[in-house]
Amino acid sequence: MKKTTLLTGLLAGSAMLMSQGALAACGEIVLGSAISLTGKYATNGIHAKNGYEYAIQKIKENGGVKIDGKCYNFNVIYYDDESKGDRGATLAERLISQDNVQYMLGPYSSGMTKAIAPVTEKYKIPMIEAEGASRSLFNKGYKYLFAVLSTSEQYLASAITLAAEKAESRGLQASTVKIAVAVENDPFSLDVRAGVLDDAKRYGMKVVIDEKLPRDLSDMSAILTKVKLLKPDVLIISGHSKGAATGVRQIGEQNIKVPMIALTHCEAADVTGKFGAAANDILCSTQWAESLSYEDPLFGTAAGYEKDFKKAFPEYATKKVPYQTAQASAAVYVFKDSFERAGSLDKEKVRDAISATNLKTFYGDIKFSENGNNIAKPMVLRQIQNGEYNVVAPSAFASHKLNWPRN
Questions:
Q1: Which of 86, 144, 90 is nearest to 120 (CA)?
Q2: What is the rounded distance in angstroms from the CA atom of residue 103 to the CA atom of residue 21?
Q3: In the chain, where are the structural domains located?
Q4: Is the pLDDT of residue 14 over 60?
Q5: Which of 2, 246, 352, 400 is the most buried (most CB within 10 A)?
Q6: pLDDT class for 16, splitting at 50, 70, 90?
Q7: How far apart are CA 29 and CA 18, in angstroms?
Q8: Is residue 106 within 8 Å of 116, Cβ to Cβ?
Q9: Above 50 in pLDDT, residue 1?
Q10: Does domain 154-286+380-393 have CATH number 1.20.1060.10?
Q11: What CATH class does 25-150+291-367 carry?
Q12: Which parts of 180-312 fold into alpha helices (H)?
């Protein structure tokens, strides 16, 4: 019995050493990322970095990236861009020229991506980004920029369709709906606004408020006073995490009563955790939800991704994993898939493989247009219902009915 136990122990130990040795024997593929770890975009910058790191570890645990009979693990050189575009561009130059990075993961936000993309394009460095959704990124003719997320004009446009449906269900014309829009003056939010205004125009709706948020995003009380006065049917707010937090807080403080309120970045701002019942029935745009029926061989289901990510990052245990984190992981997964299909470390071959991506993932389908944007995945809307985020639109993805009116 003792000999059997000893032999079993030796075999187990040997297997463990072999497994560790196999991991250690893998080569390294270095990626670079200038990302917001401080400044106004820090909250989501950290979410994105955590998503990158989770995917990198998951790939490592599953045998690495396999190229021509060899395995490789990803390693990322990060620099803090401090949420400043000029610094982001400078750091991209440093990553490429001094650190010899040949592949880039994107920064956080459309504005930061817009600052960095000309640098990666100049050096012909493939960049897969997960956090820059502005459609203005994809009309420049870039050949080395690829985005896994849906473009920003889609974020809240479906809220306008919902408002039209609700008007018609009461025997009213969609054109009777009044819209209020308040957005940050940045590429992403301006595109959100453009999508909303395009849909409002299509239905003949009247836009009674069209305002830019204050630059520091800390006070929108003057705009909300106008909302009280003009009584719109729909209020649209887009100002990243800080804007979402300010919006929900001041909507509660000023007792703003609007039948439908829709925001970007609710989960990332943790509006339910910070403001409780004040966030109820607010509509939140999302690129991804754990309830969606997406799946892949590496991460498993969308629900499985959320569960396993929370184990790896316990600080998310009591809140929703934000879609910024999920799409960051998806970007790393696309790199893995592209390297393996290219069968090479040659950056031009990898770039061509990225361009030809047609991948099903836990985050959704990913397929790039000639301009580099993902054309295979829809946006969805979730409504905060008793503190829970439930998908209510589009109807094909809805898990719950819409609560309407909000007040």
A1: 144
A2: 27
A3: 25-150+291-367, 154-286+380-393
A4: no
A5: 246
A6: very low
A7: 22
A8: yes
A9: no
A10: no
A11: alpha beta
A12: 187-203, 221-230, 240-253, 266-269, 271-275, 302-312
